[in-house]
Amino acid sequence: MRVAVFSTKSYDKEFLESANEGRHELTFLETRLTGGTAALASGHDAVCLFVNDEASGENLQILADLGVRLITLRSAGFNHVDLEKADERNLTVARVPAYSPHAVAEHTVALMLTLNRKIHRAHNRVREANFSLEGLLGFDMRGRTVGVVGTGVIGQATIKILQGFGCHVIAYDPFPSDDADFQYVDLPTLFSSSDIITLHCPLTPETFHLIDAESIAQMQRGVMLINTSRGALVETQAVIDGLKRGDIGYLGLDVYEEEADLFFENLSGDIIQDDQFMRLTTFPNVVITGHQAFFTEEALSAIAKTTLNNVSDFETGEIPEKNIVSVNQYRR
Ligand code: NAI
């Protein structure tokens, strides 16, 4: 099949070409999918998208009119796709449900440890021959209560690592796992009991701004909050206010609500216009990475393989059900 690959970076090209083995005709496009770029999919049967491509209803309409039949996502998350429109225009949407949950889980814990032991500050100090320990005091992870919101594959991989540290794990998920070796609690209990809260649920209308002024008010003063899931789970101004008051003691983000205009690009010579993002970067107790939690060799290789298998399976038969995204995905 002819596949237009949007938002291509050098590493996408490398891993997709290697996994393709000549099966499909891949057109690599550096641009994101937007209303202005959708026409580049002309002459292709499928488009391959990443997390900041705009698969809005309008853009899907353009793609369908151009003859595109398959949207294959190089991601697990699919909140950027208008599934109702895809259904209406008979576009199949496929994703990579689990490529390396360990990549994201390990990055999540890396953020926790960095914030706790202040590695980011220590690194800078040592480079300037400042070996003072003032202000670098951390805490033992052992015995701390960690609240995990969303116990899918990434949430559970994170829990396993935290259990290895001797943390007490509590979790919330509207669809609890049957064989959990951790305790499920309701969301208010999770908010009020946790030293560290980490988000691993998808972005849906129900989880939009899950972390806002009201939920922050229920948390312990000085809580550590980690989001490696999707930016819009967190209301940015509410966490800035929480950080200024000291209610939030540590913030680790790999995702940001307005990341589409920032992440994955080198903007080091530009004047960043997003004042909320820039305010976040001024706090000593905030660590932000630019949506890199997935970025391991194992994950990129698995993403490329599943993405192209989805294309082959679409062409020759049926895509495995677990890889299909339907309008009813989280309405089980
Ligand atoms: P998954 O589908 O295996 O698990 C999601 C879990 O969240 C499910 O158990 C589901 O029941 C639960 N859930 C649904 N609604 C909920 C709610 N209202 N409150 C709490 N839990 C809820 O997904 P997986 O693979 O674990 O991924 C989780 C999220 O991580 C993805 O949706 C994606 O947004 C994000 N992600 C981020 C990456 C990164 O590089 N930063 C890479 C991959 C995924």
Automatic annotation (TrEMBL):
| Domain D-isomer specific 2-hydroxyacid dehydrogenase catalytic span(s) in chain numbering | 3-323
Q: Could you tell me which Pfam families the record lists for this protein?
A: 2-Hacid_dh, 2-Hacid_dh_C
List the molecular function annotations (GO) for this entry: D-lactate dehydrogenase (NAD+) activity
According to its UniProt record, the EC number is 1.1.1.28
Where would you find the membrane-spanning parts of this chain?
Answer: none
Q: Which InterPro entries match?
A: D-isomer_2_OHA_DH_cat_dom, D-isomer_DH_CS, D-isomer_DH_NAD-bd, D-LDH-like, NAD(P)-bd_dom_sf
Please give the PROSITE patterns that the UniProt record associates with this protein. D_2_HYDROXYACID_DH_2, D_2_HYDROXYACID_DH_3
Give the top-rank taxon of the lineage listed in the UniProt record for this protein. Bacteria
Q: Where is the D-isomer specific 2-hydroxyacid dehydrogenase NAD-binding domain?
A: 109-293
Which residues does UniProt assign to the signal peptide? none
Keywords in alphabetical order, please: NAD, Oxidoreductase
**What CDD domains does the database record attribute to this sequence?**
LDH_like_2 (cd12183)
Instruction: Describe the family membership recorded for this protein in Swiss-Prot or TrEMBL.
Output: Belongs to the D-isomer specific 2-hydroxyacid dehydrogenase family.
The entry's protein name is 2-hydroxyacid dehydrogenase
